[in-house]
């Protein structure tokens, strides 16, 4: 029997400095045959050169975009080059554990699933603290002021658990969503109504995609015997505890060349536009699910840029007032940076991009 064909599509998540570690992890720890399409979203020159050399050595397809694009836009760029039975979307900061792809394909073949995700771990050391093990993702009808309203409800399984503490839970489960950090998809699902929606620019892309898959009658599984780790920039709960005990300060491995894409990837305008698009597309009520995320705009930038800076300036003690001041300044800079980005867009897209930023500024003024 012929083995199913698989293409990996690597896209940027938020930075480029982990490119080599991630790509080498894939080639060193994947024992299932695969093709690979790497979407190079205007990486810095030294990384571009590395990718060019590696694409010739490993014979994978390297596609470079003329300017920065969102992760979903990059996924569609890569998907155009996929002709295999399965596609695996994987972020460029992911490292994988040996056997990961074999387990994903076996799950899809044995269950007929349209989508399969691995056990996704977080931070360093690798493959130890669970970020996502599948979850619930559904739209429920809720009475609000006597009227039925459509509300989204999510629940993530095993988040924050240490792998060694939950061995009995690390089994294949059917669920309602997995994440785009790493996601195997049966390509025939794209023949119908399911698509990678480019209106989802920065957040909740996996939620939107999995809702489409479920609505189309597809099934979703988390194969917890397949393990990957993402977000090596993040500081997991166990690392925070270690810092408290030792007094050491952990500064994330973040290079200056990562900053331009990082600032665009997590800009407030894209975040809010994604939430607005999700709400309109699925006719969802603007409840606490959305209000919580409105308040959290810019949270990723604060986590990776502001909080480490505050810890450094205060010798590890932290300072809420300093964090608030720096966050306010950073928000202004982020809006300025986004305006500069708008000027580089084709004229036909500038008005829409400017409207996104204006919506953010109105929302943030109302929350002050």
TrEMBL record:
Keywords: Transferase. Residues 14-118 form the Glycosyltransferase 2-like domain. One of its GO terms (molecular function) is transferase activity. InterPro entries: Glyco_trans_2-like, Nucleotide-diphossugar_trans. PANTHER family: RHAMNOSYLTRANSFERASE WBBL. This is Glycosyl transferase family 2. It comes from Mastigocoleus testarum BC008.
């Amino acid at each position: 029997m012929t083995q199913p064909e698989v293409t990996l599509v690597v896209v940027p998540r938020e930075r480029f400095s982990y490119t080599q570690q991630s790509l080498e992890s894939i080639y060193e720890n994947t024992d299932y045959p695969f093709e690979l399409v790497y979407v190079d979203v205007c990486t810095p020159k030294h990384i571009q050169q590395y990718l060019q050399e590696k694409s010739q050595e490993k014979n994978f397809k390297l596609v470079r975009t003329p300017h920065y694009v969102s992760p979903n836009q990059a996924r569609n760029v890569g998907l155009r080059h996929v002709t295999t039975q399965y596609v695996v979307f994987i972020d460029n900061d992911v490292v994988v554990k040996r056997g990961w792809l074999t387990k994903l394909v076996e799950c899809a073949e044995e269950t007929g699933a349209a989508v399969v995700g691995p056990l996704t771990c977080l931070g360093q050391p690798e493959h130890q603290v669970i970020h996502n093990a599948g979850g619930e993702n559904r739209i429920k009808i809720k009475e609000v002021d006597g009227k039925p309203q459509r509300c989204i409800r999510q629940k993530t399984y095993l988040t924050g658990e240490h792998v060694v503490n939950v061995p009995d839970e690390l089994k294949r489960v059917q669920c309602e969503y997995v994440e785009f950090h790493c996601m195997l998809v049966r390509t025939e699902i794209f023949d119908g109504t399911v698509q990678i929606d480019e209106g989802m620019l920065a957040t909740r892309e996996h939620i939107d995609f999995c809702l489409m898959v479920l609505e189309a009658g597809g099934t979703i599984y988390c194969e917890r015997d397949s393990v990957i780790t993402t977000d090596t920039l993040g500081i997991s709960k166990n690392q925070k505890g270690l810092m408290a005990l030792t007094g050491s300060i952990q500064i994330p491995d973040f290079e200056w060349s990562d900053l331009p894409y990082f600032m665009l990837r997590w800009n407030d305008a894209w975040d809010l536009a994604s939430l607005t698009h999700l709400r309109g597309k699925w006719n969802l009520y603007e409840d606490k699910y959305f209000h919580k995320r409105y308040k959290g705009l810019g949270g990723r930038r604060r986590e990776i840029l502001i909080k480490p800076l505050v810890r450094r300036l205060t010798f590890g003690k932290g300072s809420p007032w300093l964090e608030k001041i720096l966050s306010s300044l950073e928000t202004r800079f982020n809006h300025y940076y986004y305006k500069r980005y708008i000027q580089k867009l084709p004229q036909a897209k500038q008005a829409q991009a400017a409207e996104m930023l204006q919506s953010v500024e109105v929302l943030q003024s109302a929350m002050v």
